[in-house]
Amino acid sequence: MAFQPLHDRVLVRRIESEEKTVGGLIIPDNAKEKPSEGEVVSCGEGARKDSGELIAPAVKAGDKVLFGKWSGTEVKIDGEDLLIMKESDILGIL
Fold first, then answer.
1. CB–CB of 47/72 below 8 Å?
2. DSSP state string for 50-73
3. What is the arithmetic mean of pLDDT over 65-83?
4. H helices then E strands: how many in the chain?
5. Cα–Cα dist 83/77, whole Å
6. What is the largest CA-CA distance in the chain?
7. φ, ψ dihedrals at 10, nearest 5°
8. Is 45 left (phi over 0), alpha (psi -120 to 50) or beta?
9. How far apart are CA 22 and CA 20, in angstroms?
10. Is residue 29 scored above 80 in pLDDT?
11. Which of 10, 11, 19, 82 is the most exposed place for a label (fewest CB within 10 A)?
12. Rounded to whole angstroms, what are the CA distances from 30 to 17, 18, 74?
């Protein structure tokens, strides 16, 4: 993939949730919520302070992350549905 996010933005691939509940019930596609867990595909070089100093991102490609329900912008790159979000939208690394 030849896409590189700019500044403090991160490209994330959603990790799909289980098709069944713990009790064994199958959840139909239209009843499933979009997962709020994903894998970082790539990230920008980081944000800049007012002084111009670079703040390196806390995440890196391959990290599994948790993000807010309405975070990011959905994009399609090379036929794959991905999210672009600011690093601050990421709640934590799993």
1. no
2. TTS-EE--S--TT-EEEE-TT-SE
3. 89
4. 0, 8
5. 10
6. 56
7. -130, 140
8. alpha
9. 7
10. no
11. 19
12. 13, 14, 18
Q: Which residues contact 42 (CB under 8 A, 6 or more apart)?
A: 1, 3, 4, 5, 10, 11, 61
pLDDT of amino acid 70: 83
pLDDT at 40 over 90: yes
Tokens 């912008």 belong to: 73
Give the three-state DSSP class for 15.
coil
Predicted TM-score (pTM) of the model is 0.77
Q: Which amino acid is at 30?
A: N
pLDDT digits (tens, 9 = 90+) for 81-93: 899 999 989 999 9
CA of residue 23 relative to chain centroid, distance: 29
Pairing of strands 54-55, 47-48: antiparallel
| 72 contacts 9 by C-beta, under 8 angstroms | no
